[in-house]
């Protein structure tokens, strides 16, 4: 099953908006999933989107708010009063509400919080605002079902029913002691299949994977993936249960992390999207281009060192882009494999073994590529055989050096605590351009003597 | 909480293996999570890993099997008899068991299936083997809890208890009619909070998001993410409930998809890891390097066209790697943003607007980079001002063309149904190298006249 926004639907909505036919709008959107409505609003202009937003009920709009693109959400929030925003937040889970409040200005924040209806909810939200967004505390929500180890199954089911009213999805049932310290978890299955008089202390599972409230988000993601968890309890420094993180929030972390590595490999240093403003896009792209430009200056200088070759061996200069391109590509390949290996925790073996492996691989690839290069330069481009030999030897050397740089720079960065993904993309291509050209002309000078 | 494999632990295990102290091994690993044990086995050699594997109980080893690296799993399976493999599979969920069977040779497959203990389980596994691994059918499992719309809450709870025995995690309770056609779902909350005499038909939720059994895995991932689902029911062409897909299997799809885009951007055409064999790594990397090499031949030819400039304007050749690098980097940036926009479904607006935007962005970046380039070439490199002007004009032109190529090639590929990620990395850098150098020298010739 598939939801597709049709042009007809958009047109119909726009007509209803123009003629202020609110009931028709409501009827049209009534059975739609909030994620679908958000997709529609993102297609409309800000005024149209806000009009529809105000027509719909707050139990629906609250969820829609979460799904909107950032700029539209910001725009809509700016047109709502503190009281209206508070009404939206009353409908949301604590972590989602806290995320939205965190986007507001400081003045508005306080005002919105004071307008929240449900005091318990407000207290939970304020508590969540304390944590960094990229920690377990920033990801967790307060909605959870917990039972006391001293209860029996009957009390437990009764208490759970009450708690479940406020929890949209029951992931796990956590067991705590009288001090709210996390003791373990209860399987729903055991609860369903045990007599009602059984003590919780007798049936709960004492092993439970948890994270500390200040654990990093990527660490939480790693643990939840490794142990296949759909929710994980969060404890404070005293071991007290303070919240839980669900897998849907972790999927966002996983995707953002993968997107970030990909963008860095492509030379984009901020999280930008195609639809961001030109200034934002420029800010994300310029730093890497400036780096490449500065590297380019060095290549100009390096080539200048070999100016003497121009008279007799001018053809050598025709091959510099080819050599630079091969060095760049090999370097990016090597670095990408290492960066992914580090990200997915699949690197093993010693540095020395890795060195031997990269050199063997480079010799294999270099031999094949050199053969093609020699044949191409001799038959296709009509270059003299001696030039072909020079270029082939240079190519093998360049491939070895480029793959070593591509392998060991990310490993080094990782070792000193810098994100190794920084070393894929422009950084590696630029340094390999420089090294590649230097090696190429040095070998040419040794063989041809100029 | 963190699990770290210590060298001491590995040494202790190895000592126990050498002296065949099976009980000590069991004691040491008894309380460990299967994912942790798998991590340990991956650190040992094949013989040691197999030894430990055979010491442990099959309820533990079955889960371990799933978590092992491919080559170790293959090795261990090759040392087990059909009966032993069947014992492992009896412990696993249907989809995991089917995944392992799918890796076996055809002969062994039949033998293992015939050795399965639980006939119902065997039937489910055989059913799952029919589906392509990258479809909903290939991802789904048979373990689910379903109730008939004609039951009441009491019958429902009773039946659920029985079904729950075979289901390790209850995600959703699906409601079917007498023909097993999916009608809706039941919220656990409603079930917990409704009187036992209520009819299911009166309380179940009629709206349920499902996928067809032959839906593509990435489509399933998109739907589950969009609607924040932790499990999704799978139906056949008749609308009958045939299985369910859980979010943990979808996380793998999301990660594989992100990894694949990343590898393509880096010029790696197969799913490889740093620890794969040299031959596999070479096979994944060579095609792109050959492509870059062939593109290199063209750049050699293009440069040859401008040989006449060498006598009077030899310095122009020093700047070719710089121009090529800028073209390549700009192209990769543009293509990466488009590829991610397509993958995350966040591209909107017309092609014409995108064209205007890319040109504006290029003019902005081009102006800034040209200023740096002019200053650098005049003061730093001591080139004549006229050469600086030539290079700056060329740079702006190259940036515009490169960003247009980077933007529209992925869009075009996507339009004709080819994976746009193919167009990031080497393909874009190579074509931009060629175009960039051609533009650069053409502009130089126009201004300098050679």
TrEMBL record, chains A, B:
Alphabetized UniProt keyword annotations: CBS domain, Cell membrane, Magnesium, Membrane, Metal-binding, Transmembrane, Transmembrane helix, Transport
UniProt KW Cell membrane keyword:
yes
What Pfam families does the annotation carry?
CBS, MgtE, MgtE_N
- One GO cellular component, as annotated: plasma membrane
Please list the GO terms describing molecular function.
magnesium ion transmembrane transporter activity; metal ion binding
Task: Identify the residues that the record assigns to the CBS domain, covering every copy.
Answer: 140-203, 204-260
Location of the protein in the cell? Cell membrane; Membrane
Q: Per UniProt, what is the membrane topology? A: Multi-pass membrane protein
Q: Which PROSITE patterns match?
A: CBS
What job does the chain carry out? Answer: Acts as a magnesium transporter.
The record describes its quaternary structure and partners as: Homodimer.
Q: Which NCBIfam families match?
A: mgtE (TIGR00400)
Looking up PANTHER family in the UniProt record yields:
MAGNESIUM TRANSPORTER MGTE
Family per record: Belongs to the SLC41A transporter family.
For this entry, the protein name equals Magnesium transporter MgtE
Which source organism does the UniProt entry give? Flavobacterium crassostreae
């Amino acid at each position: 099953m598939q939801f597709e926004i049709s042009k007809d639907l958009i047109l119909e909505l726009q007509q209803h908006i123009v003629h202020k036919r609110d009931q028709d709008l409501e009827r049209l959107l009534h059975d739609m999933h909030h994620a679908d409505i958000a997709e529609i609003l993102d297609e409309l202009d800000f005024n149209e989107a806000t009009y529809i937003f105000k027509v719909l009920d707050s139990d629906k709009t609250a969820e829609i708010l979460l799904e909107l693109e950032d700029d539209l959400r910001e725009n809509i929030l700016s047109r709502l009063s503190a009281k209206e925003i508070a009404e939206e937040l009353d409908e949301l889970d604590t972590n989602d509400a806290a995320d939205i409040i965190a986007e507001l200005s400081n003045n508005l924040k306080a005002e919105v919080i004071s307008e929240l209806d449900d005091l318990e909810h407000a207290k939970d939200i304020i508590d969540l605002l304390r944590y960094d967004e990229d920690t377990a505390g920033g990801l967790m929500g307060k909605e959870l079902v917990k039972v006391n180890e001293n209860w029996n199954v009957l009390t437990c089911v009764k208490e759970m029913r009450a708690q479940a009213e406020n929890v949209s999805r029951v992931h796990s049932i956590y067991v705590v002691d009288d001090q709210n310290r996390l003791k373990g978890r209860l399987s729903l299955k055991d609860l369903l299949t045990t007599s009602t008089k059984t003590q919780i202390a007798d049936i709960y599972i004492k092993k439970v994977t948890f994270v500390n409230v200040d654990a990093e988000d990527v660490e939480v993601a790693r643990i939840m993936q490794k142990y296949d968890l759909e929710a994980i309890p969060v404890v404070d420094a005293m071991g007290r249960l303070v919240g839980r993180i669900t897998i849907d929030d972790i999927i966002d972390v996983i995707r953002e992390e993968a997107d970030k590595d990909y963008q860095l490999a492509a030379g984009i240093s901020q999280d930008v999207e195609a639809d961001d403003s030109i200034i934002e896009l420029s800010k994300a792209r310029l730093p890497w281009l400036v780096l490449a430009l500065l590297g380019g200056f060095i290549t100009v200088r390096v080539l200048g060192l070999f100016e003497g070759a121009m008279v007799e061996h001018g053809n050598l200069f025709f091959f510099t882009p080819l050599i630079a391109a091969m060095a760049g590509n090999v370097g990016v390949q090597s670095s990408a494999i290492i960066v992914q290996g580090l990200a997915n925790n699949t690197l093993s073996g010693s540095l020395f073994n890795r060195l031997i492996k990269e050199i063997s691989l480079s010799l294999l690839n270099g031999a094949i590529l050199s053969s093609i290069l020699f044949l191409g330069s001799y038959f296709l481009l009509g270059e003299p055989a001696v030039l072909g030999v020079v270029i082939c030897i240079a190519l093998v050397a360049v491939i070895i050096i480029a793959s070593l740089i591509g392998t060991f720079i990310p490993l080094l960065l990782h070792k000193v605590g810098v994100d190794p993904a920084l070393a894929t993309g422009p950084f590696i291509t630029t340094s390999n351009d420089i090294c590649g050209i230097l090696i190429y002309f040095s070998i040419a000078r040794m063989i041809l003597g100029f």
